[in-house]
Amino acid sequence: MAALPFTLKVAILAGTTTGVAMADIKRGGLGLLLAIGLIGAGAGAASAQTSDMRLIREPAYGELRDVLGAVLPVATPSARCARPAQLPDGACLEAVLAGMKARGATTGRVLTAPGAGGGAGTVISGPIGQAYRLYDVTLAGGAPRVAPVTLPSSSVRVPLDCYATGRGVDYRLDLRDGQLVAREVQAVSCGGPVPPIGYGGPRRPPIGQNEPGERWPATATVEVLGAPRQLAAPRPDCPPDAALRDGVCFAAGIAELAFRPELKELDVIGAKRPVVPGVVLTAKETEQYVLKRGRKGFKADKRWFDKSSLAAPAGCGLTSPVDFEVEAGDRVHERALAGCGAPPAPPPVATYEAYGAVMPVVMGNRPGCAERGEQLLGDACFSDVIGWMRARKIPKAEALVLDGFYRPGERVYGGGPIRFSYASVWVNPDGTYKADRKHSYSAQIRSSGCSTLTDAGGEASGMTLIRADGGVMARAYQWVACPVR
Q1: Which of 239, 376, 383, 443 lies deepest, with the highest CB count within 10 Å?
Q2: What keywords tag this UniProt record (predicted)?
Q3: d(Cα 170, Cα 125) in Å, to the nearest integer?
């Protein structure tokens, strides 16, 4: 049984007074706490609130699968490595280059890792540049050209019905034709949230690269660059008519507007400190302006909201703050990192039934009800409700009105088999009672940390009949989804 992942604070109302006692239900278990209080004079609602919650459905989990990517050759250190084939981290490319030439390949990607000494069966995982390094190798006559890969990159493409588990791509080492190789592999959860340890049976075979089905873009981290934008920065030689505000020189932007009369305004990124090409500014080190022509020269207005020209590729989302890299010619461009591939797995949730207000119930008509002046709203007998209100000196209450007699345990909800309505009941100054129909009621359901289910059908919310307070009462309920920790 799933534990409640939160603490509920419940107000227990005693009698018709306004005194309140606070109780905590600590995380873990479905501890029962029924808090029934009566609404005091003039409150306008029927009864009190309960905080016990009943488990309706255990959380559903996905299935752990491995998704395979490319097979990369692994370069390892060698004491006899020729200098042209030696990588910056000491690994030797000679065996890799021989394999590329034998296959007729002119380009390839190579992996090196401190843990590669473990040989076949070793799994390399961790951040790039620490746990492993990647290099792109090109053969074009003479010495090979080697370019380090600085961001995590792979050819693993996860099926669309699977989710990332929080781990990136790992590299599983193996021997093929005497060459140490690394197979890209990513653990994913297919069909739902990541299952807990020990959940389900043995893991099914990995999902290969060539299996049919739609997939997410390859798992990777990419750099996203924005279009060049005008730069303004502090300058000691700034012309007085270009030092429009904030100690920033707008000379380059003014020249751009003067050269391009068709532009009504110009987007400008202002640097809060002097800069040179290659400097990277954080968002806090910049201000965004709109440069415009005025009656007497030019003016620069601050933007109320920052404007961005960054757009991550399809299937990717920004994973780092946006910063600005200064270019030559008083220009600047935004840049950020984006993660591509399968989205994170949704959190597991359990479905609970949360409870709220308790109110009296009207069940059909009874003989003698009209003679006592307790038949209201046509043919509904309010004797039980009126007696309940008199005994507790409640001047106004809400009530559930049913079309007949029903036992505790019955459920009343929209679209269900029982016809019902709600009523507001109150006592007149002369001691008689009156009622009006209502379209809704005060459910008073609280389920901190949980969300209301909106697609579970009509039975997911309504009233359940219970035996309480000396008779049959109606208690509001609602199905909610609660995160499982």
Answers
A1: 376
A2: Membrane, Transmembrane, Transmembrane helix
A3: 5
Distance CA(339)–CA(337), nearest Å, equals 7
* Residues 342/219, Cβ–Cβ less than 8 Å: yes
**What pLDDT is attached to residue 34?**
30
Residues in the chain with pLDDT values less than 70: 1-51
Residues 402 and 467 in one domain: yes
Q: Are 109 and 137 in contact (CB under 8 A)?
A: yes
* CA dist., res. 170 & res. 123, Å (int): 7
Rounded (10°) CA dihedral 18, 21, 26, 30: -60
Backbone phi and psi for residue 352, each to the nearest 5 degrees, phi listed first = -120, 160
Which has the closest alpha carbon to 245: 278, 281, 277, 292? 292
* Total Cβ atoms within 10 A of residue 349: 20
pLDDT of residue 31: 31
How many CB atoms sit inside 10 A of residue 178's CB? 7
Same domain, 360 and 331: no
Q: Which residue has the tokens 């840049």?
A: 335
Co-location of 328 and 440 in the same domain: no
Conformational region of residue 400, where left means phi above 0, alpha means psi within -120 to 50, and beta covers everything else: beta
Whether residues 366 and 397 fall in one domain: yes
Task: Please check whether residues 140 and 230 belong to one and the same domain.
Answer: no
CA distance 419 to 362: 12
Three-class SS of residue 90?
coil
Helix or strand or coil: residue 118?
helix
Q: What do you get for the CA distance between the two ends of the chain, in Å? A: 12
Report which residue type is found at 203: R
Within this chain, do residues 67 and 159 fall inside the same structural domain, yes or no?
Answer: yes
Residues 121 and 139 in one domain: yes
How many domains does the structure of the chain reveal? 3
Report the C-alpha gap between 480 and 456 in whole angstroms: 10
Full-model pTM: 0.74
Q: Which tens digits make up the pLDDT trace of 128-144?
A: 999 999 999 999 877 78
Find the DSSP H helices in 113-264: 251-259
Q: How far is CA 217 from CA 110, 167, 314, in A?
A: 21, 16, 8
Domain residue limits at 128: 63-216
Task: Please state, in angstroms and rounded to a whole number, the distance separating the CA atoms of residues 161 and 149.
Answer: 30
Length of the chain: 485
